[in-house]
Amino acid sequence: MKFWLRTCITGTTRSVLPKFMRESPSGLITLFELKSMLQMQGMTEEASGYVDQVFYTFDMDGDGYIDFVEYIAAVSLLLKGEINQKLKWYFKLFDQDGNGKIDRDEMETIFKAIQDITWSYDIPPDDIVTLIYERIDVNNEGELTLEEFITGAKEHPDIMEMLTKMMDLTHVLEIIVNGQKKKE
């Protein structure tokens, strides 16, 4: 398993730069390299799209690469970030078109991808999305702003717990790296 994935999974960040550079001599990771490291063969289109979206949220400057600074910032956020920071990251992950709002389809796509990867939840993604929108879409617009998302998640401990468990990237990456696929 590649060093940077192991770091993300285990939370160990000591002496990171030399090891990162040894495994990524250019100091940059492309989406293709990420998918190669994760051995994405056999994964569903949704799971592959999820990895794309994770990559794009880590690629903070949008240059098509995850560099060392972006990597450390992402790992630090996922392992030690405050809840507001994590909720902002979740929001960015859900907001696939980058318009500053999450629509039901965007959220359902991410939850479906997570289920395709982890096979850990019996509740259908559309039921999860319906529950979330019934509770936190205060304007009933079918879209969530960042403010609605953060406020709603904090006001509903059950939703916060569900988001935290489902959006645990270290768990999802561990399953991908260990090669677990969706059960038939």
From TrEMBL:
Domain (EF-hand): residue spans on this chain: 46-81, 82-117
UniProt-recorded Gene Ontology molecular function terms: calcium ion binding; calcium sensitive guanylate cyclase activator activity
GO cellular component, one term: photoreceptor outer segment
SUPFAM superfamilies, alphabetized: EF-hand
One of the Pfam families matching this protein, by short name: EF-hand_8
Gene3D superfamilies: EF-hand (1.10.238.10)
Organism superkingdom: Eukaryota
Sorted UniProt keywords: Calcium, Lipoprotein, Metal-binding, Myristate, Repeat
This protein's name: Guanylyl cyclase-activating protein 3-like
